Amino acid sequence: MQTPAPVDYAKATSVAHAIELLQQLGDESRPIAGGHSLLPMMKLRLAAPEALVDLNDIPELQGVRVEGDHIVVGAMTKHRDILDSAILAEHYPIFREAERVIADPIVRNRGTIGGSACQADPAADLSAVGSALRGTAVIQGPGGTREVPLREFHDGPYMTVLEPAEVLVALKYPIRPGAGSAYEKVERRHGDWGVATAGVFVVVRDGVVADCGIGNAAVGAEHYCSPGAEAALMGQPATEESFAAAAKVAGEECNPSADQRGPVDYKRHLATELTLRALRRAAAASQGA
Amino acid sequence: MQVTVTVNGQEVTRDVEPRTLLVHFIRDDLLMRGTHWGCDTSNCGACTVWVDDEPVKSCTYLAVQADGKSITTVEGLEKNGELDPIQKGFMECHGLQCGYCTPGMMMVGRALLDKNPNPSEDEIREGISGNICRCTGYKNIVAAIQWAAEHPVSTEASEVTA
Fold this sequence. Notes:
The complex is a heterodimer. Helix content of chain A is 34%, strand content 27%. Chain A is of the alpha+beta class. In chain A, helix 9 packs antiparallel against helix 10 and helix 10 (240-253) runs antiparallel to helix 11 (264-286). In chain A, 54% of the residues are buried. The model of chain A has no long low-confidence stretch (mean pLDDT 97). Chain B is an alpha+beta fold. Chain B is built from 6 helices and 5 strands, in the order E-E-H-E-E-E-H-H-H-H-H. Chain B has helices spanning 22-29, 85-92, 102-115, 121-127, 139-150, 155-161; strands spanning 2-7, 10-15, 48-51, 54-57, 70-72. Chain B has a 5-stranded mixed β-sheet with strand order 2-1-5-3-4, covered by helices on one side. In chain B, strand 3 and strand 4 form a beta hairpin. In chain B, helix 2 packs across helix 5 and helix 3 (102-115) packs across helix 5 (139-150). The longest helix of chain B has 14 residues, at 102-115. The termini of chain B are far apart. Mean pLDDT of chain B is 94; it is low at 157-162. Classes of the chains: A alpha+beta, B alpha+beta. The A-B interface holds A 1-9, 11, 35-36, 39-40, 42-43, 52, 54, 56, 103-107, 109-110, 190-191 and B 1, 17-19, 21, 24, 40-42, 45, 48, 54-57, 60-62, 64-65, 67, 108, 126-127, 129-131.
């Protein structure tokens, strides 16, 4: 039987209340979102926070909306609601494609986009999506609100730039008219963490790649992205040759580790192949195919 | 810490440690043993219950988080002495062997049909993809949920058709 160590618990009713509680309860207190990473870690005693501040009942952290030229996703929006979001499906099908392969429907009822971002698992699908789209994290803390590009949000595996008593409140993604997007993942079994993944968006204008973003999870890509592959693709004709050249860079630029999911050369091969497949589909979507 | 929840329509209040998992609260505090406790790692789905009508894995949910909410367990499927169609489906189609996964399977099966009364086989398989069965190979579980979809009648409705 796995049971967490004794812990205090408080339910926050607003973001301001959550920040106040985190300050009161001290540096060893932690916010809890869906709890599907934190609770298992607490049960295995890999984590033993002194207190939990529950963010689940804060209405202002929920939901997907359009604000100006951005899509804003509340940090406590559940995987299920991202999967079902008409706004995200319209602008960025990459979310739906990624969500379909995240865990299972019951876990998706609890897990949240903000919890996933803050857990900072190197294989987190939505972190590759956020990096590909060059999104922004909106963070609120005792000193006010600040915004951090998602490509600077993670300091490394399981580490973020969040300071004590700061709370991730939303993730923002710029709307790009004409963009196509796609997500590809190879996993050992349905709903597992990826062996390798690729998520991309591409804007093709007059047959040329006018804008693009390339994200990879589970293969040690720094900040879940491949800027070298993006540079290789920008301004190039939207052809199989260009996509293959960019995908090759993504496979070379990442830094996978050998583990039970596979050896390094296999993961590099997957990073290349999945990036290629995602680029093909995203470019086709951008061109209305 | 005091927790008040409505379980299968009945309000109960208990004093629990914040670290108590919902599955242990249901089984050991409320002594309702229909909900099974399986892998303890949110993989197997045997512990699935509804919180506010939504399936969750109760091994990965603190009892204190359910304060003020409504919980439905497998014991809550039966209405007025009449088994729910999902329960009848598992009987009719031999949807179980050892029975360990069954409460979780029935809770996700019922929730799926409530949202989507006529799911395809693929939708059923996706719907139960968070629940592991090591006996049946899933074939009869899918058949059981299909049976329930084909026999959605409540007691009143069946009297009318009769």
